[in-house]
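Hi all, long-time lurker, first post. I run a small reading group and we've been trying to get comfortable going from sequence to structure in the token notation. Rather than ask abstract questions, I figured I'd post a concrete chain and ask someone more experienced to write out its structure so we can walk through it together at our next meeting. Sequence below, copied exactly:
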Amino acid sequence: SKIGISIEPSQVRLITCVDDPYNWTFLPEKWHLFGKHLSKHSIGAYMELCRDVGISFEAVAAGASTQCTAQVKQDDAPPSQPDVSFLAKIQQLEAENSRLTSELNQWQEQAVRESELKGHTEEEVNQLQSALQAAQTDIQQMRHEINNWALTADFFRKSTIKSCRGLNEAFLLLEKLKLELPALWNEQRLDWISPEVASGVV
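-- Answer (accepted) --
Happy to help. Here is the structure in token form:
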């Protein structure tokens, strides 16, 4: 019906003659199906014909110069070229395959770039984590040193306060001695003088 020809199923031939209103176009790998008459094929070939019709082979209207192919053998050379409509379908499939291949390559390249970017990002994250851990270690060490310096400063502060108290006490004692020293000096001086000298002095 595709080429506008009505043929009884019993009249369908794989090897066509000049009187037949149609010819077959097929891909090279299907040549073995058209090297025998339909009655000579096995059940497997029948199944292959039913499965692949319109996919890897199709019937086309016979041209004015079509020659009889009834004597063609399986190991003869295949026909020169498929029909133009069949070639167009093949070209369309090849173009689609090329487009899908190109798209697949683009996706693969993008996946590689994203993988590399992810690797760089993970490396940077690891470096930042290492730097953060090192900084935290330094902070803890500095806190420990600050605590030690604070303890030392507190010790010196308490020592200074104690020393200041001692100095104040010593200063007060010296002031007291300074006040008491003249009287003590006079008493000592009188004790050294004899009674006679003391009476004469008096």
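A couple of things your group might point at:
The helical segments are 43-52, 84-192, 195-201.
The first helix runs from residue 43 to 52.
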